[in-house]
Specification:
The structure is a single chain. Helices cover about 40% and strands about 20% of the residues. The chain is of the alpha/beta class. The strands form 3 sheets. It has an 8-stranded parallel β-barrel with strand order 1-2-3-4-7-8-9-12, surrounded by 7 helices. Strands 5-6 form a two-stranded antiparallel ribbon. Strands 10-11 form a two-stranded antiparallel sheet. A hairpin with a 6-residue loop joins strand 10 and strand 11.
Length: about 325
Amino acid sequence: MNTLLDRRQFLTRTALAATSLALLPAGLMQGATFRGRIRKAMIVGEVTEAALQPLKDAGFEGVETSHVCAEADAAKGAAVAEKLGMQVHSVLRGWMEFNSDNPQKVEESLEKTRMALRAAKAYGADAILLVPCRIGGMPMPEAWEFDIEFDEKTGHLTRVAAGDNEKYAAYIKAHDQATVTSRAAVEKLIPLAQELKVVIGLENVWNNLWVKPHLFRHFVASFNSPWVKAYLDVGNHVKYAPAQEWIKALGSLIAKVHIKDFKLNPDGHGGKFVHPRDGSIDWPVARKALDDAGYSNWATIEDGGLPLAEFNRRLDLILAGE
């Protein structure tokens, strides 16, 4: 046994380990068990120094902006963020009407999305959040009643609940139409997304579509494009399935993550949105699932009503797996 060599190897490995720990964000130092680095952000409107400085002071590293604007204005916002050592990582576009029967509304939605993609490029962001459309106004299962089966080739629903699905026929028809029209619209946007190198992050947000993890994964994966991924809001989906099930199903398809919480009623049926760590999400399990999925990007709090420092503290705990 070469004791000197063993000692040198020990010292070298210890130094490398210390260096690796130093590179981790403060919130991960306790456990140091996660491979990916997740950075902290909040949502703002216009990107100004007045909006960003308090976030920086509270410990946030970047923002997602809902201010979709001309490229020149977005470039000014990028300069403001850079001056503060922050980053605009995403643009929140919101609701589109890709399933509309009115061709003009579909084209308007496409143009709004194109504008968001161009603004994102100018901001220095690498993704946009996009909700393709919504459906409603017809009988559909309650969140806890969904038991979905679908055609693996087309993504069309064959049933949405156990038993007779006749009363849900209008919902199934609207859902299938939304899948077809949304896919057609997003496919038109992929060339621009590829040119700009900005990911289209599809979000599923109480729009009565793709309400189960395996179905949403199928829809996102059907584009077979690195420029179309999922923008997962961890809290939005809790009434349909636990957060970790969504994360595990989507895996490497997750482009970005929104952080909020949802507290289920005692019977598990329905509930309400609450601040992060006050609800039903098992955050250590969800954090582990994100790491298993190889997620290493941004976590953006979509919430208000607490001091920024408290939001930052809670996000640190979540990212530390606590």
